[in-house]
Write a structure and sequence with these properties.
The protein is mainly alpha-helical. The chain folds into two domains: 95 residues, no CATH class; 41 residues. It has five helices and four strands. The two termini are 21 Å apart. The model has no long low-confidence stretch (mean pLDDT 85). Bound molecules: zinc ion (2 copies). One zinc ion binds next to helix 1. The site of one zinc ion has 8 residues, from helix 1.
């Protein structure tokens, strides 16, 4: 992808976004440091809540939650609950609770089916449709 100038979501500084996302390299580094702190804090205090971690380390709640969601804190075997990204129910693993996970997987599958069907119809209209061609893509 082409690097494009982006304002850092944390400090507002303009940086060249290489596809890594919303933060400038400085803030990314800071986040890495904070994530290490969070990981070691959680190791020492496995029963702490997200709020306690944020207060103790002065880090953003979103950072802790994104660590939990990406599974970066799973190895420490913590007992932290955080809200499901869809319905807000308290969960311990992943991004969504079981119900939402199921629903979302279903929705994705359904939308893929929809897109495929549309593409098939388009191809049939154009008369270039062939089953093998489609599978290859
Ligand atoms: Zn920044
Ligand atoms: Zn949910």
């Amino acid at each position: 992808m082409i690097p494009k100038p982006t304002n850092c979501r944390e400090c507002g500084r303009l940086f060249l976004n290489l596809g890594s996302g919303k933060y400038c390299p400085g803030c990314m580094q800071k986040h890495e440091r904070q994530m290490d702190e969070i990981a070691s804090y959680v190791r020492d205090n496995p029963r702490s809540s997200v709020d306690e971690i944020c207060t103790a380390l002065e880090v953003k709640k979103s950072l802790v939650i994104s660590m939990l969601q990406s599974g970066r804190l799973e190895e420490v075997n913590i007992d932290i609950k955080y809200p499901c990204a869809s319905c807000g129910k308290m969960i311990r693993h992943g991004r969504y609770c079981k119900a939402c996970g199921k629903k979302i997987t279903g929705e994705i599958a359904a939308s893929i089916r929809r897109v495929r069907k549309n593409a098939e119809l388009q191809k049939m209209k154009k008369g270039v449709y062939s089953k093998d061609q489609w599978i290859d893509q």
